[in-house]
Design goal:
By secondary structure, the protein is α+β, with helices and mostly antiparallel strands. It has one domain. The protein contains five helices and four strands; from the N terminus they run ααββαββαα. The strands form two sheets. Strands 1-2 form a two-stranded antiparallel sheet. The protein has a two-stranded antiparallel sheet with strand order 3-4. A hairpin with a 4-residue loop joins strand 1 and strand 2. The longest helix has 41 residues. The protein is elongated, with a radius of gyration of 22 Å. The mean pLDDT is 90.
């Protein structure tokens, strides 16, 4: 009887330390792939740099997945700038910038072109399905 109890404890320990985190990690990986693909399809394209830079990273032990990009202008595309910023507090009244040819331009900002948040919002059921039947 003692050996059965020891085996049960060993199986539960293995499940808690290895099997469950591994299964959840697979679900997170699959969910990240869904959102990444959707974000890439929703990202605006001028040069393709933004779209091609969207990636994901999964940290199974932390049970965390992150989808995003390291492109410095990506947040401005997602939420807009100036009077159009969906985050509030954008620069009011506009500003002048000089382009590469030396020509000055006045702008009130850029309208948002969200791609990450809509990628999550439009795939909630697909994300949930990534975790069905894992345990």
């Amino acid at each position: 009887m003692a050996s059965n109890a020891a085996q049960i404890v060993a199986n539960i320990t293995k499940a808690a330390q290895i099997d469950i985190p591994e299964a959840i990690g697979k679900g997170i990986e699959n969910a990240c792939l869904v959102v990444e693909a959707s974000a890439k399809s929703k990202a605006p394209v001028k040069t393709g740099n933004l779209r091609s830079s969207i990636t994901h990273k999964v940290t199974p032990l932390a049970m965390e997945g992150v989808i995003g990009t390291a492109i410095d202008y990506a947040p401005y595309v997602e939420v807009g700038t100036g009077i159009y910023s969906t985050m509030g507090g954008g620069r009011q009244g506009g500003w002048v910038y000089v382009d590469a040819s030396g020509q000055g331009h006045h702008t009130m900002g850029s309208r948002p072109q969200p791609f990450l948040k809509p990628a999550v919002d439009s795939n909630l059921s697909a994300i949930m399905k990534c975790f069905e039947g894992l345990l």
